[in-house]
Amino acid sequence: PLDTTIPDNALVCLIGAAGAGKSTWASTWPGTQVLELDRFRALVSDDAGKQEATDDAVFALQAVLEARLARGLMTVVDATNSETAVRAGLIATARRHGVPTVALVVPTPASVCVERQDGRPDNRSVPAPIVRAQHAAVVDAWPGLPGEGFDHVVVAENIHRLEPLLQRLSD
Ligand code: CTP
Ligand code: MG
Question: In 97-127, which ranges are continuous DSSP H helix?
Answer without folding.
Answer: 110-115
